[in-house]
Amino acid sequence: MLSVGIIGSTGYGGQELVRLLHQHPNVEKIALTSKSYAGHPYSSVYKSFYKIVDVHCQPEDMQQLAEDVDVIFLALPHGLAAEKVTPDVLEQAKVIDLGADFRLKDAAIYEQWYGLAHPRASLLAKAVYGLPEFFKTDIQNARLIGNPGCYPTASILSTAPLVKEGLIDPATLIIDAKSGVSGAGRTLSLDLHFDEVHGSFKAYKIASHRHTPEIEQGLGLIGHLGVNTPNISFTPHLVPMNRGILTTGYAQLIQKISAKEILALYEKTYISQPFVRVLPEGASPETRWVKGSNYCDIGITVDERTNRVIAVAAIDNLVKGAAGQGIQNMNLISGLPETTGLEQLPVFPA
């Protein structure tokens, strides 16, 4: 049985962790911390937990938490999370960071894209990128996990087999992504108000989104490209819905190959990966069919006219894109089946 702590439990990612961990058969204790709501009942922040999670939020004390629990989840903005992780903490507990601080291997790239020097650059070599479908063995032996971002999870899973098998020219890869508003977190912001979002649809952070180097790094590691990590074009869009991510990747095929052959490759790649569903030829993923679940649905089309492959993926940004994948990683580092506590079916309608 596991005892788990969550730092930053009152954000969207944090509350999704609470929802899933409360139903986890191997979790016997959940300690919740919050800087803003310390001393308040958790159910006063999210009333869906009334008479279900009746604990009070604790002040943030990373060292004390590390002494009290087996696994700590960090659900904090970049920069803040890394400051709390020390070698002493990692000796006491395993840490899974849902934020960006331990995803990138190169501190200089982190500084370039996030605008600050990495607070714990010395720990980057110990951190494992927590994408279970490709780095399971490393995850099982890790004490510090950088949980993948929501956009990179869908982007990498949908295009990695193409890169790994050398079917595309990686330099031609373009990823067009759409996210529900919850992907921006719970912090108030004018451009996320209902009147600003409802009935509109926009691209943002064009050619400058911070998930770009994470996608490039992930594909480079999986494809064994080394220093030739692909430079991709990545454009995110904000969709007026609560949750869900849809990514569409386009790339030039190096040679003629049918969609049927590529689908067979995807089926072989993901046959033992319980949360990746490769759809049959002609089917296209939709966010509504993965909502509330840890599944990633992938669809493949080949445009014979242009000899391009189009890979589409759908995930729930708060589950497979954050809390669910974090728990999948927790299961792996704890010696449990990775599906434990994560077999909830998608919710429809929602």
Structural class, from secondary structure content?
alpha/beta
The CATH topology name of the largest domain reads Dihydrodipicolinate Reductase, domain 2
Global morphology = globular
Poorly predicted sequence stretches spanning 5 or more consecutive residues: none
Order of helices and strands: EHEHHEHHEHEHEHEHEHEEHEEEH
Mean pLDDT: 94
Rg over C-alpha atoms, rounded to the nearest angstrom: 20 Å
- Report the portion of residues in β strands: 15-25%
Question: How many domains in all?
Answer: 2
CATH-defined architecture of the largest domain: 2-Layer Sandwich
Strand order of the largest sheet: 8-9-7-10-13-12-11
**Name of the CATH superfamily of the largest domain:** Dihydrodipicolinate Reductase, domain 2
Compact overview of the structure:
By secondary structure, the chain is an alpha/beta fold. The two termini are 33 Å apart. It is built from 12 helices and 13 strands.
3D architecture notes:
With 350 residues, the chain is α/β, with parallel strands linked by helices. It is 31% helix and 19% strand. The strands form 2 sheets. A 7-stranded mixed beta sheet has the order 8-9-7-10-13-12-11. The protein has a 6-stranded parallel beta sheet with strand order 2-1-3-4-6-5, with helices on both faces. α1 (12-22) crosses α12, α7 (132-140) packs parallel to α12 and α8 runs parallel beside α10.
